[in-house]
Design goal:
Blueprint (H helix, E strand, L loop, with lengths): L1 H21 L6 E3 L6 E3 H17 L4 E4 L13 E9 L1 H6 L5 E8 L2 E9 L4 E6 L3 E4 L2 E2 L12 E4 L1 H6 L4 H6 L3 E3 L4 H10 L4 E6 L1 H13 L4 E3 L11 E6 L1 H11 L2
Parallel strand pairs: 3-4, 10-11, 10-12
Antiparallel strand pairs: 1-2, 4-5, 5-6, 6-7, 7-8, 8-9, 12-14, 13-14
Helix pairs in contact: 1-2, 6-7
Bound molecules: D-MYO-inositol-1-phosphate and calcium ion (2 copies).
The site of one calcium ion (CA) has 5 residues, from strand 4 and helix 7.
């Protein structure tokens, strides 16, 4: 798996360069499901670039990607690459920071590899259950387990505002909530131990790369609708340090 990851990493650096070159150029921005759900020409080009590289090298593999007719897959058996070309597109357009490139490999529905590239910090978090987690070349230490009242919770503004899935109640049981607007960066925060958990409503490409890395540290995650996480649809999503995760289940979902 490490060898495979090392074949993929140069492509992610190329994708990062594509984004940096276009950051301050005029780009085509379109809305999708809502005024704050954007896609740019850069998202589309990065996805197309990664698909071409992957299929050139692994023509038999399947692809699930957020943009341009790639966002549905009927069969998740075998090798499936999951692509979010720019996670945090709204931040990309409005802030020009706080976004990332994400890629995951699943085999028969099980996580194998995850990549989350914080483009502006030039930090690539990558790894998987069998190889551990790295930030660029350096192994990342496993963050310490935490109780719910001992740290910060990443969350989604809409869920928090409406207290959906007890998002506000859960946030209020922590030392504070943070809302970055980029699922990948919230996952990085859990991996580094700067947030104890993250709660949102996510598509598979928003969570799959992060979950592959959480699996390396045995950090639990799941859906809050009582269903199993399912790579074919959006679901309410929670990940947290083991003790905090258990506290959340016991206090809010029993
Ligand atoms: C979005 C971000 C955001 C999350 C949304 C996602 P996108 O991804 O990860 O943090 O709250 O649900 O859709 O659309 O910018 O790739
Ligand atoms: Ca995206
Ligand atoms: Ca996303």
């Amino acid at each position: 798996m490490k060898q495979l990851a090392k074949e993929i990493i140069p492509w992610l650096h190329e994708a990062r360069q594509m984004i940096l070159e276009n950051l301050n150029r005029p780009m085509n921005v379109e809305t999708k499901s809502a005024a704050n759900d954007l896609v740019t020409s850069v998202d589309k080009n990065v996805q197309q670039f990664l698909i071409s590289r992957l299929l050139e090298k692994f023509p038999e593999d399947k692809i699930l990607g957020e943009e341009e007719g790639m966002n549905q897959l009927a069969d998740f058996s075998g090798r499936v690459w999951v692509i979010d070309p720019i996670d945090g597109t709204l931040n990309f357009v409005l802030q020009k920071e706080n976004f990332c490139i994400m890629l995951a490999l699943y085999i028969d529905g099980k996580s194998q590899l995850g990549f989350i590239f914080d483009v502006m910090k030039n930090e690539l978090y990558w790894g998987g259950a069998t190889i551990g987690v790295f930030c660029n070349e350096n192994p990342l230490p496993k963050p310490k387990d935490q109780t719910l009242d001992s740290g910060l919770m990443g969350t989604n503004a809409f869920l928090y505002g409406k207290n959906k899935y007890h998002a506000k109640d859960i946030g209020n049981a922590t030392m504070g909530v943070r809302m970055i607007g980029c699922a990948g960066l919230e996952m990085i925060a859990i991996l580094k131990g700067t947030e104890l958990g993250y709660l949102s409503n996510l598509q598979p490409w928003d969570y799959a790369p992060g979950c592959a890395l959480l699996d390396a540290f045995a950090i639990p995650y799941g859906s809050m609708d009582g269903e199993k996480l399912d790579l074919s649809r959006r679901q309410p999503f929670l990940a947290a340090q083991p003790t905090a995760y258990q506290e959340i289940q016991e206090k809010f979902f029993k």
